[in-house]
Amino acid sequence: MTDKKRKHSVKVFSLFLTLVLILFTNTACGSEATDSEVNQPANEDIEWDYEADVVVVGAGASGLPAALKALDEGSSVLLVEANFDTGGHVAVSEGQFHSGGGTVDQEKWDIEDSADLYYYDHTRGTSINSRYNDREYVRSIANAMAETYDWMLDNGVKTLDVEPMVRAYYRDGGNDGDSVGRMTYVDASDWENTYTGTEAAGIGVSRPLEQTLHEEGAEFLLNYHMDKIYREDIFDGEVIGIQASYSPTILPGETEPLDSLMSEGNIEETKENVNIKANNAVIIATGGSTGNVEFRTMLDPRLEEYMDGLAGMPFSDQDASGEYAAMEIGAALGSLGNYTSVVGANITAPQRFGTQYGYGRGWTEDSVIWPLVRANGIVPDYDSLVIVNMVGERIGNEDQYALPQMDTARESFFDQALTGTVIDPEGDGNAETYGGPLWAIMDQAAVERNGWDMDAEGVLDYEEGYAFKADTLEELAEMVINKYHEDIEMDPEILADTIARYNEFVENGHDEDWGREETLVHTIEEGPYYALWATPSMHDTLAGIRVDGNMQVIDIYGQKIPRLFAVGEASGGMRVHGLGRVMTSGYIAGRAAASVDENGFATADTSLNPEYEGSETNDLTKTNKAEYFSDRGLSQETMTHSEKEAEIEEWEQDSKGQQDEDETSESENETGDNVFIGQSNDGFGGRIIVELTVEDNQMTDIQITEQSETVGIGVEAIEELAKQALEEQSADLDVISGATVSSDAFMDALNKAMDEAGL
Ligand SMILES: Cc1cc2nc3c(=O)[nH]c(=O)nc-3n(C[C@H](O)[C@H](O)[C@H](O)COP(=O)(O)OP(=O)(O)OC[C@H]3O[C@@H](n4cnc5c(N)ncnc54)[C@H](O)[C@@H]3O)c2cc1C
C-alpha cells in the first residue's frame, strides 16, 4: 500500500470515528460539534496565504470551464492544481467530444436534438448507462450542454468538420443511451501534446481554455495538492477555504521539478502548506477516485490494488482527495449505482500489453514524463495469444476481450476476469474467489509474425515486473511473480497444460473450454515465451460527491453545503463517459458559484436557455413521450418500440447483405493471383489490413479491408495515403499530421503486401 493510500484509509477511519463520536455526542448531550473534534483550527486562527472569490481545485476538463465561467460572470478566480501543469486527464485524452442538446455542430449536420431528448436518452430505463442517473443532475446537464459547447468554441476550442456520430447506441449492441449523433472530435492541430508525445487531441480542449484564463486574469497555483476544506463547523456553516500542500513533480534521477508550459499569472510558491480563502465558493474539480483502492473497493470489492494501470496515469492521478475532503465536512456521495461498469469506459482491456500504463495509444519517448511511463508495450495480436490468470489458467473467451471498448459482449469476460479464480492460498480449507492480474502468453513465432522487437528499450517493462521472457513455459511460470499477489505462484505444470490444451483446440478448430472462435488461429509452441501484463485498467470515475442541479454539494442529511460545489468525475449523478458531461458540469458550477447569495447558496437558474431548442422543457404533466417529442418536431422518438426494432432489423439485413458481398469479393480475390494482402497490428485501433492489386509490376488498386482507426482523423489519413501510394507507386510516404500511428501502420501493412508481390 502506498503512503498516499495508507493516509486515506487512516483518514477514512478517523472520519468514521469522528462521525460516530459527534453523532453520539449530539444525540446524547445535545451539544454542538466543535472545531477541535474535526481537527480543524478555529477559523480565527487560520492564516490565509491567498484569497479569491472562487477557488477551483483541479485544472482539468471540468475545472478549466468552471474557472472561466466564474471569471466571465465577474468573480476573481484562483485555480489550485496538484500537477506541474494544467489539463488532468483531458490533456492526455483523445478529444472525442460527446455533446448534445442541439449544438452548433449538430445543427450544421441537420441532426435533430434537444435538451429534452438528451435528458430522456440519459434517464431511460432500458439503457444500463442511463437508468441509475440522478434526474436533477441530468436535467441540468441537458439544459446547459449545447450552450456550453457553443461557449467552449467561442473560447478557442476547435472541432473537426465531421458529422457528429452516435457513439454506440444501446439498441445496436452498444451501451450508450444516445439515440442521435452527438460525438464530435476536437481539432488540436494548433497544440503540441508534450505530455503524451503523441497527437492525443484532448490538449486542444485544455490549452485554449487555459490560455483564455491567463489572458483574462485568472491566477494559477500549480504544484499544490488540496488536502482539506475549511468549513465553519463540521456539519454546519459555510465553507470558507482550503488547505493545500506543495506537490512538485520531480522525475527519477532529477532534482528540479517539472515546469508548466504557460506561466503568466502563475503564483510562484514553494511553502509546504498554504491556506486559501474562498470569499464566495470552492469548486472541487479533482477528477474522481479510480486511483484510490480504499475508496473504490468501498463501492465494488473487485476493484483491488492490482488494477494499477489507470488511464491518464502517470500524468495525473485520481486519488479521491476531493471526495475525502468533502466527506470530512459532511458531504454525501451520489448516484453510487453507477460506480462500476464493466462495459464502456469504466473498466477496460488495455490496448497495449507488457506495460503498466497500457490504456489507449500510450506514450512516446517524446513525452516530458517518459521516465515515469518507462515502457509503451505492444498492441496485442489476439490471434497469437491466450490470457491466463495468476495461476496459469485461461479464465474466459479471448474473443470477448478483443472486442472494442463499447461492445457489451465484453461484459462476461470482465465479470469472469474479476472473480473467476477460486483458490485456497492459506491451505486452510477456506477457498477464496478473486480476480487478480491477467497475463498474455505468447511465443516467438507471434513475435516474428508481428515484427515486434521485444528487447528494444521502452517497449516492455521487464524491470518492474510487467513483462517476462523465458525459454520454456515452465521457466516462464516460475518467473511470473506479482507484487500484489506474492503469495500466489503460477504453477509451471498448469501453465504448460493450459497451453498444450489450447494448442489442441487450435488444431481441432474448436475451443471446448470457452468457445473461442474468431481468434482461435495460431498455436503457441515456439520458445522463447512471453508473459505480458494484460490486466484490465480503470478509466472513468462514474460516481462521486452528491450535488444538486447547480452542482452545489449536498450533505449526508440532504442539505446543501453553503459555498461548496463539485464537478466532473468528482461529482456523482450521471454515468456517461467524458468531456461533454464533465465540461458542462464545470460551466454550470462556474455560473452557480458566481451567483451565491449572502448565505452561500447558488441563485443561478438551471432551466433551459430559451435560445436553445426545446424551451417548453420541464413539462411535468406530459406522459406520452412519443407525442411530446413529435410536438417538438423530433422524429427519433415518435417511433414505437416495434417500429424501431424493424428499423434495426432492416439495418442488420443490409449489413448482412454487405458482408455476404464482401465475402464473395474476398474469395474472388483469394483466387486471383495478382492480389496481395498486408497486415499491421499497430494501428491506433489495432489491426489494419490492405489488399493490393498489382498488374504489370504496377500497383493498380489498394483496398483497406479492415481498420478501426479514429473516424474523421485516422480513417481519412489512411484513405489519403492509399491514394498517394498509388500515385507515387511507393509505401514510403510522409505521415499525415495528427494521425502518425494510423499512417505508420498503414504504410507497414502496405509494405508487407508489396513484399508479397515482390515489389
Ligand atoms: C487516456 C484517456 C483518454 C480519454 N479520451 C477521452 C475522449 O476521447 N473523449 C472524452 O470525452 N473523454 C475522454 N477521456 C476522459 C476525460 O478526459 C475525462 O472524463 C475528463 O478529463 C475528466 O475531467 P475532470 O475535470 O473530472 O478530471 P481531470 O480532467 O482529470 O482533472 C482533474 C484535475 O484535478 C487535479 N487534482 C486532483 N486532485 C487534486 C487535489 N487534491 N488538489 C489539486 N488538484 C487536484 C488533477 O491533477 C487534474 O489536473 C479520456 C481520459 C483518458 C485518461
Automatic annotation (TrEMBL):
Record family assignment: Belongs to the FAD-dependent oxidoreductase 2 family. FRD/SDH subfamily.
GO terms for cellular component: membrane
Species in which this protein is naturally found: Atopostipes suicloacalis DSM 15692
Annotated protein name in UniProt: Urocanate reductase
Top-level taxonomic group: Bacteria
Record's compositionally biased regions (Polar residues): 605-621
Signal peptide location: 1-30
Pfam families the record matches: FAD_binding_2, FMN_bind
Catalytic activity: dihydrourocanate + A = urocanate + AH2
Cofactor(s) this protein requires: FAD; FMN
InterPro entries the UniProt entry points to: FAD-dep_OxRdtase_2_FAD-bd (IPR003953), FAD-oxidoreductase_2 (IPR050315), FAD/NAD-bd_sf (IPR036188), FMN-bd (IPR007329), Succ_DH/fumarate_Rdtase_cat_sf (IPR027477)
EC numbers: 1.3.99.33
GO molecular function list: FMN binding; steroid dehydrogenase activity, acting on the CH-CH group of donors
Region (Disordered): 605-624, 630-680
Residue ranges, compositional bias (Acidic residues): 660-671
Keywords of this entry: FAD, Flavoprotein, Oxidoreductase, Signal
Residues in FMN-binding domain copies: 683-757
